[in-house]
Amino acid sequence: MGLILDKLALLFLCGICFSFSDSSIVSVAGLLLLLIASSVAEVLRNTRFSFVFPLVYSCGCIFLPELACGAPLIMYDSLRMKKWWAVLPMCTVLFRLDHFRNVQIVILLAGLFVAAVFYIRVFRLEEQVNILRSKRDEVAEKNLELDDRNRELADAQDNEVRIATLRERNRIAREIHDNVGHMLTRSLLQSGALIVINKDEKMKEPLEELRSTLDSAMTSIRQSVHDLHDDSLDLKRIIEDSASAAHDKFKVNLDYDIGDSAPAKVKLCIAGIVKESVSNAIKYSNGDRLDISVREHPAFYQLLIMDNGSSEKINETGIGLKNMKDRAESVGGFISFTPSEEGFRVFASLPKNKENI
What we know:
This protein is α+β, with helices and mostly antiparallel strands. The protein has three domains: 2-100, no CATH class; 155-231; 235-356, Heat Shock Protein 90. The protein is built from nine helices and five strands. The longest helix has 96 residues, at 102-197. The mean pLDDT is 78.
């Protein structure tokens, strides 16, 4: 709104200046051309052609000095567009002041002064707006950084809670195994001994039922302990710990994409293969990069470990490689070892089936 008022005020001053011209045709035509030039310049302000119409109007003053009555508005538009040189052709009017009346010269100078004041005010206002926009962008960036840090903090807290939960599950599993399990085992042995030495036929059936009950309880406890232990296996953490041992020698790239629902047998198999592979790479590889990829597919789990050291031979009778092969076969999968000049590669595919659950 302020811009429109400024231009209307300058247009009004230019109109007064035009009104003192000797020819009414020149006054009307000049005012009309001024209005067109200023309007088109405003429409094209943010384009590369914004200066064309003010420059054309300014050049017109060379042939028709009376057009200089519109100098205040043209100068205001040129300054706002940062194209001050567009008004230079108007300067030729200084050598042809005889075409103007004294009152026109006074009004023209006053209009130029007002245009300069308006521009300075607008320029300062735009500077303040730019500063406010910059501050707004900084605040928005800080807010995004704060959100990221809050998410990281929340993830770290969730991870700490998860680790604490897994440790507590392991502790409970150990307590059940060491205490309740041992007592049930002793009770089973005692009930077996009582059955052997019992001579009373009436007590035989109750003792058998007691032994059966204790045996069922032992099976249930064993299953519960296994479930707690299986749930407490944090495969990603195990792999990260294994990979951290190679950071002094390799640049380690880890790609992990397996859900928490992976069976315990598969987790133990993958963890064992990764540990052995990383250990072999540290001992025998002369490379500087180690890539570890553990991914879950709809029908199988895939494991790929590769370094960039040169290796053309492999001793498949080695204990480490044999252990990895046995681990993969224990869950129905297969594993391959590929040495080459580009590096040593361990690839394993472990199927998803009920036997692994």
